[in-house]
Design a protein that fits this description.
Two copies of one chain form a homodimer. Chain A folds into two domains: about 1-130, Sandwich (Jelly Rolls), CATH 2.60.120.10; about 145-235, Orthogonal Bundle (Arc Repressor Mutant, subunit A), CATH 1.10.10. By secondary structure, chain A is α+β, with helices and mostly antiparallel strands. The radius of gyration of chain A is 18 Å and the shape is globular. In chain A, a hairpin with a 2-residue loop joins strand 8 (about 170) and strand 9 (about 175). Chain A has helices at about 5-10, 20-30, 85-90, 110-120, 120-145, 150-165, 180-190, 190-205, 220-225, and strands spanning about 30-35, 50-55, 60-65, 70-75, 80, 95-100, 100-110, 170, 175, 210, 215. In chain A, the strands form three sheets. A four-stranded antiparallel β-sheet of chain A has the order 1-7-2-5. A four-stranded antiparallel β-sheet of chain A has the order 8-9-11-10. In chain A, helix 6 (about 150-165) packs across helix 8 (about 190-205), helix 6 (about 150-165) packs across helix 9 and helix 7 (about 180-190) packs across helix 8. At the A-B interface, strand 4, helix 3, helix 4 and helix 5 of A face strand 4, helix 3, helix 4 and helix 5 of B. The structure holds a DNA duplex (30 and 30 nucleotides).
Chain lengths: ~240, ~240
Amino acid sequence: MIENTPLVRKLGAFVALLDPELSVLASLHKRRRTFVAGRDLVHQGQSDQAAYILASGWACSYKLLEDGQRQIVDFQIPGDFLGLRSVLLHVSDHSIEPVTDIEVTEVLAADLLKAFAQTPRLATAVLWAASRDEAMVVEHLVGVGRRDAAERMAHFLLELGGRLAWVGLGNTDGYACPLTQYHLADALGLSAVHVNRVLRQLREAGMVTFRDGFVAFDDYDQLIKFAQFDPSYMDQKGPFLP
Amino acid sequence: MIENTPLVRKLGAFVALLDPELSVLASLHKRRRTFVAGRDLVHQGQSDQAAYILASGWACSYKLLEDGQRQIVDFQIPGDFLGLRSVLLHVSDHSIEPVTDIEVTEVLAADLLKAFAQTPRLATAVLWAASRDEAMVVEHLVGVGRRDAAERMAHFLLELGGRLAWVGLGNTDGYACPLTQYHLADALGLSAVHVNRVLRQLREAGMVTFRDGFVAFDDYDQLIKFAQFDPSYMDQKGPFLP
DNA sequence: CGCCTAGTTGAGGTAAGTCAATTCACGTGG
DNA sequence: CCACGTGAATTGACTTACCTCAACTAGGCG
């Protein structure tokens, strides 16, 4: 029997994977590695031979500007790829930092390409997963471009909650969240000081409380309305390829 | 001999496509259709059976917020897919508006999935192209999140120039650009008024002039330095799969 | 104990937004 | 042919959301 990893669960939502595909997928996992929080595992500009699949912990991918500012593009949670784009484009256009200590399994570029060639349905599934990730980035862009700080924060916390619920790490009450206010600031394009103020504002409005590493939705419905949160772009309606 | 469309050129940069793959690709093109400027061809929320390949003209993909604001996510130029993600996710999370009158060829979802199954290298090539598009969106996010208005504008005009040069529609002197200041505003997360001011500022600084549908780089090197433009994320180093 | 990191709060500055008025090019119909 | 309407660009005056600087608290750990 093939193991039921977060990745298999995720791809299985897109494509009903058959045994041969599952075993190809399983054969991708090479070395298991761990990284400590705060020390980058991938540097912007680096040429990569390997991607990783996140087994436990949180990471974030970000880009640095020359003047030292940074923009966090996305957070990764268990089951997500780390550096898939870097492998495909043969150079990393971003850095990846573990937010917590993390465990990953390494995937070699050559193995991945070979797997795509052998099992086209797997390639399609990965293309699907990549499309969903891109939809996340797009929604992130919309938030940073057109929402004010409070809406942006509210939307972000809801989206993260949705993603975590998806892998069983949260629900409409809330979730454990190891991010600092600095992480939030760099993700949302705000200053850390303003993040603090906005969090207070949302807390005092009785919508959501982020404190001591835990996000608590105090009034989920009101928060959704306030954030103009439309979960349709996150929905997953089951496998499309039988 | 298989025709040399913009799409073939684009994918060929990633994967050295063989004749069988080229003919599968050619067989994807169904009806040729035209759309007039300003009238959406895809609406947010719509369920799509078909994607399009842009043959001529410019389009943009955007998302609308409930309060009527919009964020343009990306512009599409000849050779780009329109609505590929919508097809893969079976629902459109964004709208697409032709900026000019456009010509497209329709690609049916079923045909596309069949093509992927038959020719895995084609699926890999499309995954590659999608990754490059995602890298663009990521860079866009960084700009909106962490660059001030002038840098953002400068960076945007340079990136667009790079993409157009890529398909032979521009060079380091400049390019024809049908966008209005409203398009720029919605893409960059600014107000149209501020776009106007920023353009004046860049023009008076002698770096770039956008006027009468034409972007002229007055001082390309200075502009690159000002925008902290790093073209590496756009680079294409030739086919990886022989 | 003392240092470091994360969080909190206030005061004041600034980039960008809003509102409003004007110009100009263009198309369209009387 | 000209009056008119419309969309795009332009500019000024004023407002505001968010930033910066700075001070302070609280917990964790050598």
